[in-house]
Specification:
Blueprint lengths: L1 E4 L2 E3 L2 H4 L4 H19 L19 H4 L30 H8 L9 E3 L9 H5 L23 H5 L5 E3 L20 E6 L6 H8 L7 E6 L7 H9 L4 E5 L11 H18 L7 E4 L7 H12 L1
Parallel strand pairs: 5-6, 5-7, 7-8
Antiparallel strand pairs: 1-2, 3-4
Length: 300
């Protein structure tokens, strides 16, 4: 990363030439930090943090990861590829988001608070990759954890935090009645190619208001999150999981469907129509937005 002038910065292949995509991502992040320092009036360059080295992905974990096929960019050539000057197709935004969803979130996984951990083994039971190591307290090897958040959602002591999302605090649901008349939408971060459609639906003035709660994976869904939404005035709640073959985490969608089924039973016992809650999974014919629009229409 080289400051070209007092107010311009270069990073990635422009500064270092061709290299791995992950190196370009790291370079871009470093450039963003330097730009932030510049805008705040800081002088000079801070020492570059080399960061921790993450070991190779364990074979037992790699064997359990569902494979998601790549989407090759089909758009017209746009721009140049570093110093190679080779035109590359520019992917459409949904395809780019899909590719981003294939990221394994290395280094952004679970962290255990030893002061809270009781070594109850709940995390070991639910981890779809068999990552936790049990001892006097649970240990999450950084090279194996894929940040699905399932362990954090079931930890009875709240001893597990996930780097990329605040699982300890739970979803940020308004607790002062602001959910009244709105639909709470619990969405899996893995279904990132659907975000564009969800954003468009949120801006549609003809639809009830939406309150979107992002989860690291469908398998991290908690029963109490759904019930809290209704307790705080939600007109309905929808859980959006990845479509078949799209989820980065095995069994997550099926788990979410089970949680929704239990929640519907509780709602019915409390005198709330269970039809106000559903679990949606996009398929080849319908995307998340159309499924959600149909659900909202049924609430009227």
């Amino acid at each position: 990363m080289l400051p070209v002038s007092a107010a311009s910065f270069a990073c990635g292949e422009i500064a270092a030439g061709p290299g791995p995509a992950i190196a370009a991502v790291a370079s871009g992040r470093r450039a963003a930090e330097l730009v932030d320092r510049y805008l705040k009036g800081a002088k000079g360059l801070p020492p570059e943090d080399e960061g921790a080295v993450i070991g190779p992905l364990p074979a037992k974990v790699a064997g359990r990861i569902p494979r998601r096929a790549r989407r090759e960019a089909a758009g017209p050539p746009g721009g140049k590829a570093g110093v190679l000057l080779v035109p590359r197709p520019v992917p459409a935004e949904p395809d780019a988001l899909y590719e981003a969803g294939r990221c394994l979130s290395c280094g952004l996984g679970a962290r255990v608070d030893g002061a809270k951990c009781a070594a109850c083994l709940a995390c070991l039971r639910v981890c779809p990759y068999g990552v936790p190591v049990a001892g006097r307290q649970a240990v999450m090897p950084v090279e194996g954890c894929l940040a699905c958040g399932i362990c954090a959602s079931v930890c009875p002591a709240g001893a597990i935090a996930v780097e990329k999302v605040d699982m300890a605090a739970g979803p940020h649901l308004p607790l002062d009645g602001r959910l009244a008349g709105k639909v709470a939408v619990f969405t899996c971060l893995g279904a990132c190619e659907e975000r564009l459609e969800l954003d468009a639906l949120k801006k549609n003035g003809g639809q009830p208001g939406l309150h979107v709660i992002e989860m690291p994976a469908a398998g991290a869904l908690r029963l109490e999150w759904i019930l809290n939404a209704f307790e705080n005035g939600a007109a309905g709640a929808a859980v959006i999981a990845c479509g078949a073959g799209e989820c980065c985490h095995p069994g997550g969608a099926a788990y979410a469907q089970g949680v929704v089924a239990r929640a519907r039973s509780i709602l019915e016992q409390a005198g709330i129509a269970p039809e106000r809650l559903c679990c949606l999974r996009p398929d080849g014919e319908r995307d998340a937005a159309s499924l959600l629009a149909g659900f909202i229409e049924g609430l009227k």
